[in-house]
Structure of NAD kinase:
Amino acid sequence: MTKRIAFLASDAPVAQTARAALIGRYGNAAPRDADVVVALGGDGHMLRTLHNTQHLPAPVYGMNRGTIGFLMNEYNEADLLERLDEAELEIINPLSMRAMDQAGQMHEALAINEVSLLRAGPQAARLKISVDDRVRLAELVCDGALVATPAGSTAYNYSAHGPILPIGSDVLALTAIAAFRPRRWRGALLPKTAKVRFDVVDPSKRPVMADADSISINDIDWVEIRSEPSIRHRILFDPGHGLEERLISEQFT
C-alpha cells in the first residue's frame, strides 16, 4: 500500500527545490490525511513541524536541507518509501513553560529542546531557583539558565557545558549560562517529574527574557517549567541513526 506523504519544507531555496522534486515523484497529501509527514530543512524547521503537527497521528520524518540537522536524516530522493518502511520510531515529550511578565500577563508555550532564561540588559541576571516548590538556590548571578530535555541536551545545553542525557532517561538538565555567583555552579540533574521555577530578582533593574523553542517572552517576573507527558512527539529515524546513537556519538567528536 502506497504511503500518503505530506511534504513540508522550510523557506530555504534548497528545501523548496527538494520539496518540488519529491512531490513530483511521490505526490503530496494534506498533513491531516497523511500517513507520514516529511520535513525538509534544518533542526529549526523540524521543531516547527513537530509543534505544528503534534495534534496529528502521523509521525514526522526529517531530511536535512539545512545546516546541522541533528534531528534529521540524510537527504535522498530515490529510496524514500523503503526508508520510511524501515524507519525506527522515537517518542519524546516536550517541556511546558508558564511565564508571568512584569505587566501581570501570563504566557504559555511548549519546548522540545529547552526553555532558556537570558539577561536582556547590560547587567547580569539574578535568579532564584526552586524545585517542586522548595528553594534550592536563593540567588544565581548569571547570563542565564536553561532546562533541557534529553532530546535537546546536545543543543544550547551542551554549548553551555551542560550534560548530554541519554534519550531514554527520565531526567532533565538544569544548566547555568556563564554563572558568576556561585562561580563554579554548573547546574543539576533533575527527575523528569520535577517542576522548576525561576524567580527574577530585581527584574526592573536586571531584565530577563524567556525563550521556548524560539518563542520569546520579554520582561519576565517568573517562569515555571515541567515536562509535558500528555504530548508525545513521534519522530522517525533511519536504522542505526536514531537519537540514542546520535547522543552517544556526539560525546566522542
